[in-house]
Amino acid sequence: xxxxxxxxxxxxxxxxxxxxxxxxxxxxxxxxxxxxxxxxxxxxxxxxxxxxxxxxxxxxxxxxxxxxxxxxxxxxxxxxxxxxxxxxxxxxxxxxxxxxxxxxxxxxxxxxxxxxxxxxxxxxxxxxxxxxxxxxxxxxxxxxxxxxxxxxxxxxxxxxxxxxxxxxxxxxxxxxxxxxxxxxxxxxxxxxxxxxxxxxxxxxxxxxxxxxxxxxxxxxxxxxxxxxxxxxxxxxxxxxxxxxxxxxxxxxxxxxxxxxxxxxxxxxxxxxxxxxxxxxxxxxxxxxxxxxxxxxxxxxxxxxxxxxxxxxxxxxxxxxxxxxxxxxxxxxxxxxxxxxxxxxxxxxxxxxxxxx
Length: 356
Ligand code: ADP
Ligand code: GN1
Ligand code: MG
Prior knowledge:
By secondary structure, the chain is α+β, with helices and mostly antiparallel strands. The protein is 45% helix and 13% strand. Strands 1, 2, 3, 4, 5 and 6 form a six-stranded antiparallel β-sheet that branches.
């Protein structure tokens, strides 16, 4: 968040601020809380999201669509989905220059973010929230959606990116991560399962969120109910398996994503039960046999995919994910790989749960 431009000047393009403080724990954008009224100011990461106009168009279209559904269901659109605050001259973002593009959202009050300490009830609520989100978007006109990051969950392409990073060895770290590289490449045989299922017409494409980590959903601070799915930058066509698996990647782990004591990292199968119960409450009628069968596998796949993305970024010199300490991406990769092994050991047990 060490940016050199004057944030007061930026905020004045939207409204008059009294304070601006860094906010949240996202890995991608720079997020600030601004008062008052309380708002979220975000600098869009334009090295990742190359076309902020298309990105903002997606967000406006998706939130407008969700808003109508929420209203029709008797809910409050300003609480249950994001609201973009326009600039004084009516734009959905402010471009200070090419690399400094800012947007503002209404702050969703009386909610909490969950990072690592979560209960089974939280997982159930997250399942309900993400399931409801996907259900509401089931008839969204997909043709108006821009692909903000092409091939985002194309795991085989992620494997190719890892191989390239190994070959290029840009940060000179290859020798020190031989064990991790070996694990990543040994596991690559299952990387294509969902992409191939999609290509074969066995797995349907839907409008999906694509970044369902648990801190991308806000919970009511009193009742604990799932209130609002946020971080809509990657809403794109995809498989529901991406959203299901990715939510349990962090939601199902007994430790934080960057825990270095790997003896603490394991997959808690009860979280699978809780999340699935919530998710299926909303989605079970529209899922196909193939999707249902692959729910346990999706958790392994998405954890593996994220692990190889961290390892790739480490090899490339930490250019994608924000890091907060040296070797942070390597710590994250090791953590995810430990989790992959544990999920694999519990896959059969999860499958049994699905057939009950
Ligand atoms: P990133 O893309 O970097 O992950 P997010 O959009 O997820 O950024 O925002 C980071 C954090 O900021 C979220 O995890 C959440 O805690 C908080 N946040 C984002 N938008 C809002 C909002 N509209 N109201 C309240 N909190 C928010
Ligand atoms: C990023 O933006 P955030 O922190 O919610 C990333 C996800 C990863 C996640 C790993 C656009 O999510 O894909 O799974 O970090 N988002 C993007 O924690 O790459
Ligand atoms: Mg986020």
